[in-house]
Amino acid sequence: MKTSIEDMKEQARRLRGTLGASGTQVTHAQALELVARQHGHRDWNTAHALAGNTPPGPPVEMMQQVAGRYLGQQFTGTVIGVMAQGAPDRWKITLQLDEPVDVVTFESFSAFRHRITATINADGRTSEKTSNGEPHLALDR
User: Fold this and answer.
1) Tens digit of pLDDT for each residue in 64-117?
2) β pairing state of 65-70 and 112-120
């Protein structure tokens, strides 16, 4: 997962404070340079440019525990697949559910799902909606 500019600035503040407490004084600019190098960049300007120009990553990571609603049913599960789609803010994810969910609303019929595959946006929701206007899949944030 990509580290944001704000995350790197916060890391630099903490580094500066820790070094200062141990007697080594560094400027904020020096701390930013050190953090940039820790993230594999040549310098802070390069880190800043790449962080600002790179599209955001997926809203979930492999093996992350998630919860949400699928076709109106609450679930918890584990992300077992994440794949970028053509658009910069669309990802195909596969979830292994902790407990199967019944995706049919009829009392006389059931269809339990143990695994879900769907394409989500940066908000963790599908663009496809049910007849009542709810996303097919919505992850809790």
Assistant:
1) 999 999 999 999 999 999 998 877 789 999 999 999 999 887 888 999 999 999
2) unpaired
- Contact between 62 and 56 (Cβ < 8 Å): no
CB half-sphere exposure, 44, CA atoms < 13 A: 14
SS (H, E, C) the chain: CCCCHHHHHHHHHHHHHHHHHCCCCCCHHHHHHHHHHHCCCCCHHHHHHHHHHCCCCCCCCCCCEEEEEECCEEEEEEEEEEEECCCCCCEEEEEEEEEEEECCCCCCCCCEEEEEEEEECCCCECCCECCCCCECEEECC
Question: What are the C-alpha distances in Å from 27 to residues 41, 63, 131?
Answer: 19, 38, 57
**How far is Cα 107 from Cα 3, in angstroms, rounded to an integer?**
47
Token couple for 31: 């701390």
